[in-house]
Design brief:
The protein has 4 domains: 5-131, Rossmann fold (3-Layer(aba) Sandwich); 140-312, Rossmann fold; 316-401, Orthogonal Bundle (Helicase, Ruva Protein, domain 3); 415-460, Homeodomain-like (Arc Repressor Mutant, subunit A), CATH 1.10.10.60. It has helices at 13-25, 36-45, 62-72, 87-95, 108-139, 149-164, 179-188, 207-215, 232-235, 251-263, 289-294, 300-306, 323-338, 347-355, 361-375, 417-431, 436-443, 447-456; strands at residues 5-9, 29-33, 50-54, 56-57, 60-61, 78-82, 100-103, 168-172, 197-201, 216-217, 229-230, 240-244, 265-266, 275-276, 280-285, 311-312, 344-345, 380-381. With 460 residues, it is α/β, with parallel strands linked by helices. The longest helix is centred in the N-terminal third of the chain and has 32 residues, at 108-139.
């Protein structure tokens, strides 16, 4: 591990020499500057990890140097060295961003502790900044893939709400549409991005435990409460709490939750004092909350508090122009994961995906592409690697069809499903001149499935 650099800015040679001896014995590399001018010039080429700064220098005050560092936003911690009893100068230095001050004559034990703590604090700040930047890249708006107008409108709304800093938001959409991704984007696109993000699934937590999960508890609040525990709201102070499936929260708990939304205050279970927090709450549901209100399963006042500006994510079947973009996105992701070099999907395969209704939305599409990427041994995904259910264009969703335009017409006397299946397989084999691969594509099933059905109906 490389040694950290400390810049000593002091006009007294003896002090610089004694500090150098100590710093090198503590395993730091040392840079020296006798004047402010030398220090500024040195900062043009070097970026020290820490600066010790004397307040009285031949060409100016250390206060001027602190202002210079503040304007350059270097982020380097500064420990000020002051004359004994000059408290007002030290206070001014701390206001300008200095980490600590040491009085002369220098107590080297105190200096060593101050340097170590300052460097550790700076390392933690750097790690937090890097994590925040990484999370912004990972969970920002650019990760919500699609080019449809419907999705563009949702992304624009997310951007506006994140900038506005709304404290309560509701995300609605069918299962698999990406509500979790939207909630994270709302957090990481906002000014709260450097603070915690907590996600909780209301449907996965028993009614008896959800209050302690959200608000925590005091020691002795119940039999197993051996010590105090903070809840999600307390730990997320300054950040965001994402409550998935809010419609599953018990009606009794909803009233307590409403108070937190209104006042941003709560009490731990068994507590006697109010705790104030500053938390953004993002709730999501795939249920119709208005219907739940009518059925008295969801509080009307909580519904109105949540749905000031609801974000409605359209299902995939209503924005099918996003399917090719999503497929390419997932192929590239799984190329990295599975160490493959699949270039894309064949026109027939894409046509099949575009015809399917996707009741499971993006989650189902992602799983279908993952399956195909595991099975494919060529550079293009084909229909044979896609799940059999996708060969049903409706995806199990009833689709109305004009009379006289049926794919298969039922005779008045009726017909057995096995007979219809056998007839379709025979026709497909005739069209394909006996080629089972081509016939399976016509029937939108895998070649193995076709081989099984040929044997089943004795068509060998």
């Amino acid at each position: 591990m490389p040694r950290e650099n400390v810049l000593i800015v002091d006009d007294e040679k003896l002090i610089r020499w004694s500090m150098r001896q100590k710093l090198e014995s503590w395993n730091y590399q040392v840079l020296e500057a006798e004047t402010l001018q030398e220090a500024r010039a040195l900062l043009q080429s070097e970026v020290p990890d820490l600066i010790t700064l004397d307040m009285k220098l031949p060409d100016g005050s250390g206060i001027d140097f602190l202002k210079h560092i503040g304007q350059s936003r270097s982020g380097v911690p500064v420990i000020v060295i002051t004359a004994f009893g000059v408290v007002d100068v030290a206070v001014q230095a701390l206001k300008l961003g200095a980490y600590d001050f040491i009085e002369k004559p220098i107590n080297f034990e105190k200096l060593e502790n101050s340097i170590r703590n300052a460097l550790e604090t700076n390392r933690l700040k750097t790690q937090v900044a890097q994590t925040s930047k990484s999370n912004k890249t990972r969970f920002g708006l650019e990760n919500i893939v699609g080019k449809s107008r419907a999705l563009s409108e949702v992304l624009e709304l997310i951007q506006r709400l994140a900038r506005a800093g709304a404290s309560t938001l509701l995300v609605q959409g069918e299962s698999g549409t990406g509500k979790d991704l939207v909630s994270r984007a709302l957090h990481y696109e906002s000014a709260r991005r450097d603070h915690p993000f907590f996600a909780l699934n209301c449907a996965a937590i028993p009614e008896t435990l959800i209050e302690t999960e959200l608000f925590g508890y005091e020691k002795g609040a119940f039999t197993d409460a051996k010590s105090m525990k903070k809840g999600v709201f307390e730990m997320a102070d300054g950040g965001t709490v994402f409550l998935d499936e809010i419609s599953e929260m018990h009606i009794n708990m909803q009233s307590k939750f409403l108070r937190v939304l209104e006042d941003q205050t709560f009490r731990r279970v068994g507590g006697v004092r109010d705790i104030s927090v500053n938390v953004q709450v993002v709730a999501s549901t795939n249920r119709n909350l208005e219907q739940a209100v009518r059925e008295r399963m969801f509080r009307e006042d909580l519904f109105y508090r949540l749905s000031v500006i609801p974000i409605l994510i359209p299902p995939l079947r209503e924005r099918k122009e996003d399917i090719p973009v999503l497929v390419d996105h997932f192929i590239q992701r799984y190329n990295i994961q599975f160490r493959k070099n699949v270039k894309g999907i064949t026109p027939d395969g894409l046509k099949l995906l575009m015809a399917y209704a996707w009741p499971g939305n993006i989650r189902e599409l992602k799983n279908a592409v993952e399956r195909a990427m595991i099975l494919v041994d060529r550079d293009m995904i084909d229909v044979t690697q896609l799940p059999i259910r996708i060969s049903d264009p409706s995806g199990g969703v009833p689709v109305s069809q004009p009379a006289g335009d049926q794919l298969v017409k039922l005779p008045p006397e009726g017909a057995g499903l096995d007979d219809v299946e056998k007839e379709l397989i025979q026709q497909a084999l005739q069209y394909a001149n006996g080629n089972k691969t081509k016939a399976s594509k016509l029937l939108r099933i895998s070649r193995d499935t076709l081989r099984y059905k040929v044997q089943k109906h004795g068509l060998e």
